[in-house]
């Protein structure tokens, strides 16, 4: 058994607010193995983004133990263990696409030649070769989000954390990017943690689906995917896919029932 890349034991997170404490996460236990694609799904406010942000050291759990590559999240952040993709592309409008991707590499002190090589490689991975000199406003929403994925891939972390990266896009673009993401995952072998509101998206992308219950966010069910690694979009019409989607829906319903 290889050591998990991400491991949570009894993780809880309580926010202190003016109206009293808000229990965002409670007793979360999860181990993610290298190369897995794990989606987190649940109703709004169930703590799925909070958990992802905790892995990325953007929030600090108030209970339990969380390890990323065997380190605490702060140490993992300093070791550049992961790339993070937010809901909005967050590209600087005054920088070209190549300039946006270059930014974290500049901060990390990569040489100009190394930056150039990495930018070319990640643009190719996200199918944006030839767009490096464009500015964000010259790209569609889907292309901007691909550029933001390229930026998260540029320093070659083993882990990619994605917080509803396609949530704002229309369905056709989203389908296209889902396919592109699976291709990217197959090519790079990265471990991916992915937050989504969409049952079909979770089922299509993941090796495991973590269903979370409403606040306080707990894991109500973990569903192993039985789908093959190679997944054309048409797989969504198969009985196997429909059965998995049904199981996720049941899990979401159960989570609500325990409120």
From TrEMBL:
The keyword Transport applies. GO terms for molecular function: ATP binding; ATP hydrolysis activity. The keyword Nucleotide-binding applies. Keywords: ATP-binding, Nucleotide-binding, Transport. It holds the Pfam family ABC_tran. CDD domains: ABC_NrtD_SsuB_transporters (cd03293). InterPro entries: AAA+_ATPase, ABC_transporter-like_ATP-bd, ABC_transporter-like_CS, ABC_transporter_ATP-bind, P-loop_NTPase. Belongs to the ABC transporter superfamily. This is ABC transporter ATP-binding protein. It comes from Paracoccus aestuarii. The lineage of its organism: Bacteria, Pseudomonadati, Pseudomonadota, Alphaproteobacteria, Rhodobacterales.
């Amino acid at each position: 058994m290889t050591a998990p890349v991400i491991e949570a034991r009894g993780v809880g997170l309580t926010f202190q607010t003016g109206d009293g404490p808000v229990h965002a996460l409670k007793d979360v236990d999860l181990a993610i193995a290298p190369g897995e694609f794990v989606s987190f799904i649940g109703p709004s406010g169930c703590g799925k983004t909070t958990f992802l942000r905790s892995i990325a050291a953007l929030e600090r759990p108030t209970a339990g133990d969380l390890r990323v590559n065997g380190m605490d999240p702060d140490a993992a952040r300093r070791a550049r263990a992961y790339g993070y993709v937010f809901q909005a592309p967050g590209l600087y409008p005054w920088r070209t696409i190549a300039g946006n991707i270059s930014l974290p590499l500049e901060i990390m002190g990569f040489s100009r030649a190394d930056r150039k090589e990495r930018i070319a490689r990640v643009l190719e991975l996200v199918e944006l070769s030839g767009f490096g000199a464009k500015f964000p406003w010259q790209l569609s929403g889907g292309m901007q989000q691909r550029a933001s994925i390229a930026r998260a891939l540029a320093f070659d972390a083993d882990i990619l954390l994605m917080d509803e990266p396609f949530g704002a896009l229309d369905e056709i673009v989203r389908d296209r990017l889902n396919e592109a993401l699976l291709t990217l995952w197959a090519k790079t072998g990265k471990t991916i943690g992915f937050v989504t509101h969409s049952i079909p998206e979770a089922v299509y992308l993941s090796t495991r689906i973590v269903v979370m219950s409403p606040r306080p966010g707990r894991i109500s069910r973990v569903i192993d995917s039985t789908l093959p690694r190679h997944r054309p979009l048409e797989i969504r019409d198969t009985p196997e896919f429909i059965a998995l989607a049904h199981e996720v829906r049941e899990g979401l319903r159960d989570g609500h029932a325990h409120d």
